[in-house]
Specification:
By secondary structure, the chain is an alpha/beta fold. The chain folds into two domains: 2-172, Leucine Aminopeptidase, subunit E, domain 1, CATH 3.40.220.10; 184-504, Aminopeptidase. 33% of the residues lie in helices and 21% in strands. It has helices spanning 41-47, 51-58, 95-111, 131-145, 174-199, 207-220, 231-236, 240-246, 299-314, 359-371, 387-392, 404-417, 451-460, 496-504, and strands at 2-6, 17-24, 68-72, 81-89, 116-120, 165-169, 224-229, 254-260, 269-280, 319-329, 341-343, 349-351, 377-382, 397-401, 421-423, 441-442, 467-472, 478-479, 490-491. The strands form four sheets. The chain has an eight-stranded mixed sheet with strand order 7-8-10-9-13-17-14-15, with helices on both faces. Strands 1-6-5-2-4-3 form a six-stranded mixed sheet, with helices on both faces. The two termini are 31 Å apart. The relative contact order is 0.11. Bound molecules: ligand BES and zinc ion (ZN) (2 copies). One zinc ion binds next to strand 9.
Length: 506
């Protein structure tokens, strides 16, 4: 799908369908008045001899968010179809409304089997947001909404995506708008890459495959470097925790170090650390439910890869390093056992209480390695605890950390891109239970039910004295049902756009 910026009026637009946006009006019945604050709706209505307003009344179109009305134009204008899309109440209209609108329009265009659509976004003004911000959000939504996981559909071919060109007519200077479209495409395409990696089943996305996906990004973009550690290098690095988690699997673990340097030297270096469990069976503490979702347990790692693809193109002004700890958590005669004691790269010993608390183990080694690179900030991203869903639900990512400024920056970045983040406290008292027993630390059984907080407490020390945050994406990396701009059940790409926004804020 290609976006084209034009200055054409909608009646002359070189498109199969034109769309007009229509706000709802509080307390008002469906009426022609809905077209008052729309994008070219009144003009088109005149050319179509009042057919749009008539149909709005007849079909009780109320302008609710995402509501769609499509009608034929019978040769009165160049396009064959007019699509009216509801924008909801103007007072509630936001950048995220525009993302959802972009997604809905792409999905509608494909359902109508049209090749080209055209429209404008003049009426969808939002206080304090420049036209380019709105256009970027709309583009992002369109690209995110166009993603489906179809790689493994071979005989059952999904409905073809007919939409080729999305024309947006805009006034004024085109350069910043063109840039906004490009940025929206880059960011959303990166999120879609992450979604594809997460959706890919574990047999096709082993730790080795995950490392290859990182290498592919580095191969494509000259400003990205990628070093992959195989099992021997992981042994040499004394990453005892990664080795322990993977020892029950036939698949060797892998560790990935990605790096990006800006053209102008920067003092700031951000380390992104991702949990890359390509399948989490729970190990000997085998999962009794929802194991079929556990291909998504590498979403943190996939986020790192998606972010690197975007920054290679968007070139932020700071250094960025990415670290991926990839392993499969299986069970076999060689699997790690509850009560086993392992030694992490940091030298800290851990008693394995629960083999299903494996994410914190691989992250411990990855964080310790990341610290050696002297980063200014460390952000780890992990599908760490089912408890994240109980704490803040399916659309909010809990964040915990030791640096208020860093937390606040990520809260702001998440808000700006429509990936909400909420801070949870690090409650030191909950850590006491971890410190009991024969090793330095236990990997589970802290005694508190706040599993998301306890996950962060386990990780905290492995970040040493660095400014660090932990994002638990267990509930937000995957959508159990279609929502927002996600057309189907599956990976969301959350929090790829948040991290990109954060990195670009320097
Ligand atoms: N990968 C899971 C967490 C998870 C659960 C992700 C549901 C996505 C959806 C993680 O490795 C795990 O099993 N965590 C345990 C930790 C516990 C044993 C301390 C959990 O959350 O129950
Ligand atoms: Zn687990
Ligand atoms: Zn896991």
């Amino acid at each position: 799908m290609e976006f084209k910026l034009t200055s054409e009026s909608l009646d002359r637009a070189d498109a199969d369908a034109v769309f007009i946006t229509c706000f709802a009006k509080e307390g008002e019945k469906p009426s022609a008045a809905l077209l008052l604050k729309s994008d070219g709706g009144q003009e088109l209505d005149k050319l179509l001899e009042g057919q749009i307003s008539k149909t709005i009344q007849e079909r009780l179109f109320a302008g609710k968010e995402g509501e769609i009305l499509s009608l034929p134009t019978f040769g009165k204008i160049k396009a064959k179809t007019v699509v009216v899309i509801g924008a909801g109440l103007q007072k509630n209209f936001s950048l995220d409304s525009l993302r959802r609108m972009g997604a809905k329009l792409v999905q509608t265009a494909n359902a109508l089997k049209v090749k080209n659509v055209a429209g404008q976004l003049e009426a969808t003004r939002i206080k304090n947001h420049a036209p380019q911000e709105r256009l970027q959000a709309f583009t992002e939504g369109a690209v995110l909404g166009d993603y489906n996981f179809t790689t493994f559909k071979k005989k059952e071919v999904p409905p073809a995506k007919t939409l080729k060109t999305f024309r947006i007519s805009a006034k004024g200077n085109k350069t910043p708008l063109q840039k906004a479209i490009a940025q929206g495409e880059i960011v959303a395409t990166a999120a879609n890459l992450t979604r594809e990696l997460v959706n890919t089943p574990p047999g096709h996305m082993t730790p080795t495959d995950l490392a290859k996906a990182a290498q592919e990004v580095a191969k494509k973009y000259k400003n990205i470097r990628c070093k992959v550690f195989g099992v021997n290098e992981i042994k040499k690095e004394k990453m005892g925790a990664i080795l322990a988690v993977s020892q029950g699997s036939d698949e060797p673990p892998s560790f990935v170090h990605l790096s990006y340097k800006p053209a102008k030297k920067s003092k700031t270096k951000v380390a992104l650390v991702g949990k890359g469990i390509t399948f989490d069976s729970g190990g000997l503490n085998i999962k009794t439910r929802e194991m079929e979702f556990m291909k998504m347990d590498m979403a943190g790692a996939a986020t790192v890869i998606g972010v690197f693809q975007a920054i290679a193109q968007l070139k932020p002004n700071i250094e960025v390093e990415g670290f991926i700890a990839a392993a499969e958590n299986l069970l076999s005669g060689s699997a790690i056992k509850p009560s086993d004691i392992i030694t992490t790269r940091a030298g800290r010993t851990v008693e394995i209480i629960n083999t299903d608390a494996e994410g914190r183990l691989v992250l411990a080694d990855a964080l310790d390695y990341a610290c050696d690179q002297n980063p200014t900030y460390i952000i780890d991203m992990a599908t760490l605890t089912g408890g994240a869903a109980y704490a803040v639900g399916e659309i909010i990512t809990p964040i915990l950390g030791n640096d208020k400024t860093l937390v606040d920056k990520i809260l702001a970045a998440g808000k700006a891109v429509g990936e909400p983040v909420w801070e949870l406290p690090i409650v030191k008292e909950y850590k006491k239970g971890y410190l009991k027993g024969p090793a330095d630390l236990k990997n589970s059984g802290s005694g508190s039910k706040a599993s998301t907080i306890c996950g962060a407490l386990f990780l905290e020390d492995f970040a040493r004295k660095n400014k660090w945050v932990h994002m638990d994406i267990a509930s937000t990396a995957w959508a159990d049902e279609p929502m927002k701009y996600y057309a189907e059940v599956g990976a969301t790409g959350n929090p790829v756009r948040t991290i990109i926004n954060f990195l670009l804020s320097f």
